[in-house]
Amino acid sequence: MLELLATRYAYVAFIVLLSVGLYMVIASENLVKKVVGVNLFQTAIFLFFVAAAYVDGGSSPVVPADPGGATEALASPLPHVIVLTAIVVGVALTAVGLALIVRIYTEYGTLREDVLREVRADD
To answer: Residue 66: inside a domain, yes or no?
Structure first.
C-alpha cells in the first residue's frame, strides 16, 4: 500500500486538493473562501488530467525522420492543451467572481452567506 502511495503521489495530491476544495465550498459561509475552494477543486482536476496523461517513457508525438522505426510510446498533448484552456477560463471566472463579491460587499456590507440571505429576505 505504501509503495502504491509513493509511486502515485500525484493522485494522492489530487484527492487531498479535491477534498479540501469541496469542503471549503460546502462548509464556509464566506464568499471569498468559497471562491478559493472552487479554485482548489479546479486545480485538483487539472492535476488529475495531467497525471492521467503521463506516459512512462513516452516521447513527444512529433513525426520522426524514419517513420518505420517509431515503435516507442507517444504521449498525447491533448490533455495538456485542455488543461491550459481550462486554466485561462478558470482565471477569468475567478476574476468575475471576485468582482461580484466586491460589488456584493459594497452593497450589503458583508460577505457571509447567511447574513446575505437574511438581508435579502428583509428586502
So the answer is: no
